[in-house]
Amino acid sequence: MSDNKVILNYDGNSYEYPIVDSTIGDRGIDISKLRDQTGLITLDLGYKNTGATLSEITYLDGDKGELFYRGYPIEQIAEKSNFTEVMYLLLHGDLPTQDQFNTFNGNIKKYNFVAEEMKKIIDAFPRSAHPMGVLSSLTSALTAFNPKAVNVNSKEEMDLAAELLIAKFAHLAAWTYRKTLGLPLNHGDNNLNYVENFYKMAFRQPNADFEINPVVVGALDKLLILHADHEQNCSTSTVRMVGSAHTGLFASVSAGISALWGPLHGGANQAVIEMLELIEKDGGDVNKWVEKAKDKNDSFRLMGFGHRVYKNFDPRAKIIKKAADDLLSALGIEDKALDIAMQLEKVALEDEYFIERKLYPNVDFYSGIIYRALGIPTEMFTVMFALGRLPGWIAQWKEMRIKGDPIGRPRQVYQGAQQRDYIDMVNR
Ligand code: CMC
């Protein structure tokens, strides 16, 4: 290897592959000519070493435990910014001036309603339907009410599609929750900011006045910021992959919601609380559950622990842990689940198994405790994650389409049967 290329010696020949520079972090070997030149492809199950794109949105260093949105450290953003500003930052690349913020915020308010017909679609779901399934379906259904394909060469159309989806998504998230309780579906209130508006739409009771609790809204705002983007994770890669076929924005995001639902990804926040409740019911012996997580013959994993990229503390988990502590004391709530979570964290972080494998608490370990303190039911946790991740999905979709990434189409190493002849059923 030299500074700017990698040399591959194979089958008596030598091939050169250029190294693609980064501004910080991993550089990439451009192997796009590898197969044509050598007849070989790369095999990388789970894409552990594969860069799928060139991106300018989010950077994370898993060894140092660093996360930057458009260059700004997550700690500064979580402390000083707000979710609406973060949405603008991810979508447009820079922090907004006051005028830019007002225009963006004003546009979101302009589209702060959802067609009444959408309620009929929600009606068709049983109340027991998982909110993530409902949310994914509703997001896809939005296409029917906003049928115009986005012209990716027009900045105006791209911005409009993003603002429409952001405005309407808060309704869909709130409505999926109210559906599970059989509550009337509210429309938005333009006197409120984005997070307050969502909060009111989701939690207003039909028989009482609604008061915005700033402590609760502050905690929600922070959680949404922390979830807003995380570069090429499973759901974002799904959004980009679906969008790479020039599928529309809403349909691409709908696919991302399905990917996020899985317990190894966003669904982990629900799985963490279910795990903590199970441990509590079982007598609260955290050592027993840490042993189970280490046992290769037991399928149990410590949910909320480990991460594909972070091999150090997930910086979001640190911020969320403190926010959970602050929120519980501000609301005067004592939660046994938080005690168990802290004991689990302590035992696991001192255990050789977790140390060796560099398994630390991730973003989902403490977020469920905040959601629970806010009275949000467990099945809604991943919907909250989706609401936070939405601007990241849109920003990544937009970047992919503007840069003109080709359709995503991995190859495979085939290990199935060789060619064989069809046998009629009577002769099998
Ligand atoms: N509990 C026990 N062992 C674990 C855990 C865990 N939570 N996570 C990883 N390991 C072990 C795993 O068994 C393997 O051991 P060995 O080398 O002996 O076979 C080793 O650590 C490496 O794990 P891996 O599964 O190869 O790592 P991965 O990068 O493919 O998976 C992960 C990452 C997040 C899917 C995994 O750590 C996990 O399943 N964690 C629990 C689920 C979770 O909290 N997911 C949320 C992720 S963060 C938010 C998000 O992405 O949405």
UniProtKB/TrEMBL annotation:
SUPFAM superfamilies for the chain: Citrate synthase
Keyword Signal in record: no
GO MF annotation, one: citrate synthase activity
GO biological process: tricarboxylic acid cycle
Catalytic machinery residues: H307, D364
Reactions the enzyme catalyzes: oxaloacetate + acetyl-CoA + H2O = citrate + CoA + H(+)
UniProtKB keywords: Acyltransferase, Transferase, Tricarboxylic acid cycle
Lineage: superkingdom: Bacteria
Pathway where this protein functions: Carbohydrate metabolism; tricarboxylic acid cycle; isocitrate from oxaloacetate: step 1/2
Cellular component per GO, a single term: cytoplasm
Similarity comment: family membership: Belongs to the citrate synthase family.
Name under which the protein is recorded: Citrate synthase
Gene: gltA
